[in-house]
């Protein structure tokens, strides 16, 4: 009996629900495969799951790097059921925690959670259940776990396994850092003999190393699943008219999904701001698309209603900030669209990973504009944190830009980022329609030579605008005053438009063939410049599809005065990159000018 509970008239707690749900089956010591079948109804373990489960049941630690939807949950839940004691699950997402516990209880597992949304009664009931050995799984938010009372509670009971989910949150440089994760390394000493697991879907080799180190898992066996999601098609296109592009993308998915339209495809559209979420949802509804908004600023009941419509009904398009999606287990999301540039490749990968969990063909699409870069750069500048921290954010942005600007396979670029070698996929936009490229070697050499000549002959350095004027043979006041029309490279780049040159500069900066330095963002050579000047390798540049003219224009000198939106965007992009490079240069010391033969 439980007189304490009966005396209380508080709403029924998770713990009491757990107890009630138990026509108690005891899984201790049972065959993991039987447990998998009896509890979840699955026939067999997927890929590495069986090995992970065996490792942990045997008392060993494990680091599990598996993409979203790969099936990480059962790898800690099954050991928690098979080993005596309660499995402790550290999870940062309270909403997700709640859903997981509900699902477990529905499967007859005695599960409960401890987090800040609970009342005192409910918390006490959960604590008692734990101490009485009546819980198979206990979910705890990291901030609660890091309290003396929670730790002493846990030490008074018996843990079977400690699973740290979303373990990449321990990475200070990651996109999802949570300070409370840093203290989780102490669990090793507090609970010796309890096997520990770190699980994440976000795993660059550097993040994995950081997880092992900070969570004190030096002897853990590492399980690395492939991060490839072969059923996902990647597409990235330049932003021209974002809303129209989005609608035509959604329509194209609707068409491929079949005209029978009995079930319109469900999708998620990610935007950066709440305002943009609401405006985009309105716009899509105006276009006859069943779109709903979701962001943290909406009332709880609206969020809940929209989320359940998305999960339950066919063909709902959720327009959301990144607050939406973590832990949303909807298998048949047919597309994910990004109308703003994500902050990192990790984030992009996680968000796009919500498409096609059922393994069916799915499309992810992003519209990438130059203004995005400016906005992101501004956000980095304004973010709290020291210079090193901002530098890391800048590196995340750089990797994202490299993915956007690649002329090679998108999937290969992504997998390479996660440390996985692969062949071109044949299914992404760049594989299906290789972008038009041109060999920018000579253009790059002209630009780099101008930079070096100015530096050597005059001890001067300039930003992109003036350098382009020199190359194009413009007759500006500054050129005359400085006598730059006497330079050997004056006018040698008149074959390219101002806009083409800006595209060259942008791409060379993105590939770090150039760096921008100092407060004025003057252009300078990088370590990679030498090879280009010596002509050691071609410099394939993507032809800017945004531009009006190609790189092949005649020799007429067209001054940049046209307040062309694209060129303005280019300038903005350049400014953004410049600021970032300047910071990087300050941080690393000014790179030495290389010595090369006369161009
Ligand atoms: P992750 O945490 O890695 O993103 P989940 O643990 O949420 O993934 O699992 C993703 C989906 O795969 C869930 O719908 C889950 O029920 C399903 N799943 C996991 N393992 C198996 C399995 N062995 N057989 C069938 N389905 C599985
Ligand atoms: Mg998970
Ligand atoms: Zn490809």
TrEMBL record:
Name of the protein in question: DNA helicase RecQ
Record's keyword annotation contains Metal-binding: yes
UniProt-listed Enzyme Commission number(s): 5.6.2.4
Cofactor: Mg(2+); Zn(2+)
Gene: recQ
The family this protein is said to belong to: Belongs to the helicase family. RecQ subfamily.
Superkingdom of the source species: Bacteria
Gene Ontology CC terms: bacterial nucleoid; cytoplasm; replisome
Reactions the enzyme catalyzes: Couples ATP hydrolysis with the unwinding of duplex DNA by translocating in the 3'-5' direction
Domain (Helicase ATP-binding) ranges: 53-221
